[in-house]
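Quick board copy: two proteins, each given as sequence then tokens.
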Amino acid sequence: MAQAMRPNTATSLFATDGKPHPLQDTLLAITLVLGITAFVSAMFHNLHLLSSWTGLIGILTGAYGQFISETTRERTLLIIGLGAAAVGFFLGMAHGGLFGGVVGG
């Protein structure tokens, strides 16, 4: 019955392998910050430059973070950041795009 008392960390959603992952954690933090910034700024029509650029950069950093991620915790939080960045990017593009209002024409 000793096995009944040990926690089963292998099936936990946020299980980690116990090793440090500084690059992955940095990309995770950057993706989350950019995703939240893009998502919140997309709610304001006149901030389309901020939301589209932060969304685009958040998508790129999140995609690379997914490519090199090693734990489920990293992948889960990267998907949340990627989703917020994508929503912000697409709404920013709908409101004026990456260069809307800056380039004469």
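And the next:
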Amino acid sequence: MQNIPLIAALEGTQHKVSTDWFAIMAMLKTREMSDDDIHNVYNELCAGLRVTTRGVTLSKLSADELNHQIIKQSENKDILI
């Protein structure tokens, strides 16, 4: 499994955060999810599906969303070229 950028939302809230697969995988293991189920979640995310499990909804961060985040983060910083 490779690390992929993700968007995570807690069930019952509108709050979303960007995270990555390795952080989510560690969280799922602490919530006693089996390795087979973790692989299934990973495969579904890589296929572009939205997955809800263990109180969190996950989706893969698209390239457009990732570029927008990078631009947004760099707007507040001085960039020297």
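Board note added afterward: The mean pLDDT is 82.
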